[in-house]
Amino acid sequence: MEELIQIKDMYKIYNPGQDEVRALDGVDLIICEGEYVAIIGQSGSGKSTLMNMLGCLDVPTSGEYYLHRQNVAQLKDNELAHIRNKEIGFIFQGFNLIANLDAMGNVELPLTYRGIGKSTRQKIARQALYTVGLEKRMSHRPSEMSGGQQQRVAVARAIAAKPPVILADEPTGNLDTKTTKEIMTILKELNDAGRTIIVITHDDEIAEQADRVIRLQDGKIMEDYTNQ
Amino acid sequence: MGQIMEYVKMAIYNIAFNKGRSFLTMLGIIIGISSVITVVSIGSGVKAAILKDSKEKTVTVTVNQDKSADTQIITPEDMVLIKKRLGSRIKGVATTMPVYGTAYTNKGKFDTDIAFTTPDTVRDPYEKKLIRGSYFTEEDIKNAELKCVIDKEGALFLFGNLDVIGMNLDVLIDNKVQSVQIIGIRDTDPKVMEENQQAAKLYDMKMPLDFEMPYTSYEAWGGNVGINYSSITAYLAPGEKANRIGKEIIKTLNTLHTEGGESLFKKEKGMDITKYMTQTVNTLTTFVGFVAGISLLVGGIGVMNIMLVSVTERTREIGIRKSLGARTNSIVTQFLFESAIISVIGGMIGIVSGAGIAVLVSSLKITGISAKLSIGAVIIATCFSCGVGIIFGIYPARKAARLSPIEALRQM
């Protein structure tokens, strides 16, 4: 399988000096296309920092990050914005939908920032909402939808622009058991369809669904194993 | 370009979504702009009105007492010549001899000030206009008709109504009584009328009646008619300057009265308040404009504050947008357009309402204030509201755009 993500000797150090916090302490990681990876660890283990790095939301103190063989570790703000838009689809714990916009508008947003025209945008967004089973909720605002529905809108938004990587940060943290199952099923289906999925979670049950599990502790990778 | 339109659409969408807040933000600009427009419009209207009023409309030439023992030397012939010489540059020439007399009616006798004067007096710009009947004519002068024009207050006082045209009054001057016919009524300022009535009530004092009669009719009481006036007044045609007409009149008089030298006649000093008033009004307009400008500034700062609050409130939204690939410029553009659109719409509403208020104020006819919409003020206000939107929008917009996406997303 083609190599998608390669992280080499990555450090993220807060407050350098005596009280320094090594959120990432020499991480080496390779993720290939089509993988379904769960990153687990207790709070403070550095998994959120790693997620920020993977998502190009933050730059590391040192180390290299190759995404599609392009080193993105030290890019400028606008270049990072471009990478985020093109390469990564985010799913957040708190859904992070824009309250003003209806489901359609939210899904359209990354396409808008990519510069895609309105009619194409709407076609793609409709398709994505159809994929997550929300074709009847397109003109509903987030406040008019249940948590599960909101998260499905977020999933639709993440997949709409067809990014190679879908990055989910505790995607079911705010959901009940039933809707958790729904979302995980959608993620599984997306993976089966060939998307690379990285889920960050502290829930072992969620991690079990992934093909590969990476356990972080104190900014270091402690375990990296494949589920049977 | 297409991208920018998307951000403009986002900005419009956000403004429309937060209607209440957007309107409150606009309110500052609306009040600022409309007060500037109102104040400047009314200011220039008042200025125009004052300048119009303060222009001298008459010029009076008198006999110089230092040069002539006999001051009553202006004759009707002088008047005719002046009229001929100045032609259309004056509306008329009048000489008046005030005489004190008594009028008798069924109600008793009343003190009367009689002005023996010329028909042109009807054109006196400072006198009230005729509301009933007619003024006496040159023909009446020639025939020395015993006809009079009285003011409305006098008519009401003597007869209780205004249907008095054609009625006769006995007028006593110098122990001689003559019957005088009323041929016209002049209007009286209601304010003056009320004041006179109050004075009569309080002090048991009657204001003298005012009559105007042909100067030749003075002969009927044995007066010496036609050769003795100490002053002459010309009513200026529009656009004519008091000084120049005054000089012309003196020149004309000098050709007929050579005995007293060059300075036998002099022009009476007019009220030269034009310059002073212009200055005062300009100072006032500047001052009030300054105050209005401050309110604009306050409005602008209001927009900035709301935009800053909006940035803080929407930190998370900004984080989301950035995580989805919004560039710094996309966010700046969106927020800048939001504040610019709010300011421009507010500005337009402000211009319309300011002009409306100005028109309303002048239609209320408060002591003759009339507003003159100043194009300059409108242009300045428009530029200002755009400027406010952009300048006061930049800081919040940059603040919004520079947020790190993780910081912004962490915000709950």
UniProtKB/TrEMBL annotation, chain A:
InterPro entries xref list: AAA+_ATPase (IPR003593), ABC_transporter-like_ATP-bd (IPR003439), ABC_transporter-like_CS (IPR017871), MacB-like_ATP-bd (IPR017911), P-loop_NTPase (IPR027417)
Keywords: ATP-binding, Nucleotide-binding, Transport
Sequence ranges assigned to domain ABC transporter in this UniProt record: 5-228
Nucleotide-binding among keywords: yes
Keyword Endoplasmic reticulum (UniProt): no
Domain of life: Bacteria
Cross-referenced SUPFAM superfamilies: P-loop containing nucleoside triphosphate hydrolases (SSF52540)
A single MF term (Gene Ontology): ATP binding
Family: Belongs to the ABC transporter superfamily.
Protein name, UniProt field: ABC transporter ATP-binding protein
Species, as recorded: Aequitasia blattaphilus
From TrEMBL, chain B:
Main location: membrane
Protein name: ABC transporter permease
Cellular compartment(s): Cell membrane
Source organism superkingdom: Bacteria
Keywords, comma-separated and alphabetical: Cell membrane, Membrane, Transmembrane, Transmembrane helix
Family: Belongs to the ABC-4 integral membrane protein family.
PANTHER family: ABC TRANSPORTER PERMEASE YTRF (PTHR30572:SF4), MEMBRANE COMPONENT OF TRANSPORTER-RELATED (PTHR30572)
Spans through the membrane: 23-46, 287-311, 332-361, 373-395
Organism: Aequitasia blattaphilus
Leader peptide range in chain numbering: none
Membrane topology designation: Multi-pass membrane protein
Record keyword DNA repair present: no
MacB-like periplasmic core domain boundaries: 22-249
Stored InterPro entries: ABC3_permease_C, MacB_PCD, Macrolide_Exporter_MacB
ABC3 transporter permease C-terminal domain mapped to chain residues: 290-405
